[in-house]
Amino acid sequence: DQQVKQNSPSLSVQEGRISILNCDYTNSMFDYFLWYKKYPAEGPTFLISISSIKDKNEDGRFTVFLNKSAKHLSLHIVPSQPGDSAVYFCAASGAGSYQLTFGKGTKLSVIP
Amino acid sequence: KAGVTQTPRYLIKTRGQQVTLSCSPISGHRSVSWYQQTPGQGLQFLFEYFSETQRNKGNFPGRFSGRQFSNSRSEMNVSTLELGDSALYLCASRLTSSQETQYFGPGTRLLVL
Predict the structure, then answer these.
(1) Which of the residue ranges A17-21, A26-30, B1-5 would you say has the lowest mean pLDDT?
(2) How far is B6 from chain A (nearest CA, A)?
(3) What is the 3-state secondary structure (H, E, C) of A27-94?
(4) For the segment A43-93, what is each residue's pLDDT rounded down to a tens digit?
(5) CB-CB under 8 Å, B105 with A43
(6) CA-based end-to-end distance of chain A
(7) Among residues B49, B43, B45, which one has the least CA distance to residue B22?
(8) Hey, are the CB atoms on A104 and B105 less than 8 Å from each other?
(9) Any residues with CB less than 8 A from the CB of A105 and at least 6 apart, and which?
(10) Is B104 on the interface with A (CB under 8 A)?
(11) If DSSP codes are grouped into helix, strand and coil, which group holds residue B85?
(12) Which of A27, B10, B23, B59, by CA, is between 20 and 30 Å from B90?
């Protein structure tokens, strides 16, 4: 049973526009959420995180929103750049354990 | 600071063999976690070590094992390799075993023939 779901395997966005990547989770005990970006043949790179006591966290062009009642989080990238093209993984921890549970990823393509 | 390093980067083995992968965490980080990434299952947690002790273990068979040394470097071993073990094996480190961001290495790509 997948506890962290990224329902869109892929997303295409024009350069300069907003990219919105979505993630849903089922385990209400998760209390810390992270987004990682992954290029082919490289390990995931940490982007941004959010604790369940917040509903928004911003870092430059990246903003993560958390809706605890809906068990949903999203990553907004504004403006999108071609270098943002990668696979984005949503991850969660908590539930009595600090190990990360990952979604299966969304491949973002930013078209110049 | 140097990042997480993993060796080797690529490996080809045959069924039935065993393999050992190595991970050196970021200097000062004492927790090392291992993950397996496959196209079908995504990133799955294998185990975590902190101060030479296994703290958490994922849902993998006993053929997958690991250890951590006093300098925080970690190794994982897979015995009696199966075709389905072909994957990218990722190591991640963090300061302690608590809720901090994990930083990943580049991974070891294992192909089992």
Answers:
(1) B1-5
(2) 10
(3) CCCEEEEEEEEECCCCCCEEEEEEECCCCEEEECCEEEEEECCCCEEEEEECCCCHHHCEEEEEEEEE
(4) 999 999 999 999 999 999 999 999 999 999 999 999 999 999 999 999 999
(5) yes
(6) 38
(7) B49
(8) no
(9) A6, A9, A38, A87, A88, A89, B42
(10) yes
(11) helix
(12) A27
The span from the CA of B64 to the CA of B16, in Å, is 13
Q: Percentage of residues in chain B with pLDDT exceeding 90?
A: 84
Beta-carbon contacts of residue B61 (< 8 Å; ≥ 6 apart) = none
Confidence of residue A95 (pLDDT cuts 50, 70, 90): low
Provide the token pair at B24. 């050196």
- Over residues B22-52, the pLDDT tens digits come to 999 999 999 999 999 998 788 999 999 999 9
**CA within 13 Å, CB half, A103:** 31
Asked if A100 is an interface residue toward chain B (Cβ–Cβ < 8 A), one would say yes
Rounded to the nearest 10°, the torsion over CA A76, A81, A83, A86 is 40
The contacts of residue B50 (CB under 8 Å, 6+ apart) are B30, B31, B32, B68, B96, B97
Nearest Cα of chain B lies from the Cα of A51 at a distance, in angstroms, of 10
**Residue tagged 């000062």 (tokens):** B28
| Contact flag A97-B56 (C-beta cutoff 8 Å) | yes
* Closest-CA residue to B33 (of A28, A41, A91, A64): A91
Which residues lie below 8 Å from residue B76, measured CB to CB, with a gap of 6+?
B20, B21, B23, B34, B46, B47, B64, B65, B66, B89, B91
